[in-house]
Amino acid sequence: MTTTNEIADKIASEHNLTKAQAKTIVESVFSQIVEAAKAGAETSIPSFGKFKVKDTPEREGRNPATGATIKIAAAKKLAFMPGKALKDALNG
C-alpha cells in the first residue's frame, strides 16, 4: 500500500520541495477531486483515468445476522475508470 505521505515524499525528492510543501500539493489535488465530485462533476486526468459520480438506486438486502430483509437507501458513489495508458501499463 502507498500512503499520501509516501507520495508526497517522492514528489518532494523529485521536484526539490520540502515534504510539507509536497504533502500540501497532494492533499490539494485530492481535495479538488472531492469538491468536483460533490458538485456532481467528473474529474478527468489524461493518461490516468476519470473519477465520476454514480447514483446507486434503493435496493433490498439481507441482514446477515438475522436474515431479515432490509431496504438499503439510495446513495452516490465515486467510481474510477482507468484510462487506456494506465490499463496498458498494468497489463503490458
Automatic annotation (TrEMBL):
The organism's place on the tree of life at top rank: Bacteria
Single annotated GO MF: DNA binding
Pfam families: Bac_DNA_binding
SMART domains to which the protein is assigned, alphabetical: BHL
Keyword annotations from UniProtKB, A to Z: DNA condensation, DNA-binding, Plasmid
Similarity remark: Belongs to the bacterial histone-like protein family.
Stated name of the protein: HU family DNA-binding protein
Organism: Rhizobium rosettiformans
